[in-house]
Amino acid sequence: MKHLQDTTTLQNGIDMPWLGLGVFKVEEGPELINAVKAAIVQGYRSIDTASIYGNEQGVGEGLLAGIKEAGIKREDLFITSKVWNADLGYETTLKAFNESLTKLGLDYLDLYLIHWPVENKYKEAWRALESLYIEGKVKAIGVSNFQIHHIDELMKTATILPMVNQVERHPRLTNKELLQFCEGKGIQLEAWSPLMQGEILENEVLLSIAEKYKKSTAQVILRWNLQNKVVIIPKSTKEHRIISNSNLYDFELTREEMDQIDQLNQNKRVGPDPDNFDF
């Protein structure tokens, strides 16, 4: 991990960038389009969205603008979307996938995820993802917000192991057991809300480490994730922040500093609990 465009290789041989841009809660419009375009121009190659975000069309417009300005090809990018809970099921997931493709203006996705492990629904949705993968409509398939027991249950009927599990992860929720489980299975862990929506940026331990390296606390947290071999998708619509979030490759945290950050864990979530949600 020495460069913004460095990648991890998923279990099926597909390369996925370690760092991407997340667009959760970014509404359709010029701000979204410009953020996606700016990220691509600044060297980002991964963009993460979802059908429930309601912004796939704007992401698609930003992709087109970014590809043109950066002088790259669609194949150089890694685009992720997710199927929402209301669409989980075999036929409904296939329909949702095609709708996402249309809105994004793409003819394939690099990664498609089941957004939440809705009981009695995610197995059929996974069967649909397997079909899409076998047909070549998506390069990799995975899950989001799945705990260990969800993955174990899924694998009772699945024929393809999830390649990615995207979960909430930050210094207050280190998810160590899940990280170790996924590493053991060859599932790449990916962190959403890696900066805890800003809640932890003034923490004294992080401020002290950041001062040592002349970095921001956000950069320290993102670097901590990378050194744990966790893919990250920090959200920002400001170009200077998008650039700052990618300046992670000129310093390295020591083992002691990594442990200090691990010890900030409180199993505290800023998002819903995957074992107790009602949407």
UniProtKB/TrEMBL annotation:
It comes from the Bacteria. It comes from Halalkalibacter okhensis. The record marks 82 as: Lowers pKa of active site Tyr. Residues 30-265 form the NADP-dependent oxidoreductase domain. Belongs to the aldo/keto reductase family. One of its GO terms (molecular function) is oxidoreductase activity. PROSITE patterns: ALDOKETO_REDUCTASE_1, ALDOKETO_REDUCTASE_2, ALDOKETO_REDUCTASE_3. Substrate binds at residue 115. The active site is at 53 (proton donor). PANTHER family: 2,5-DIKETO-D-GLUCONIC ACID REDUCTASE. This is Glyoxal reductase. Keywords: Oxidoreductase.
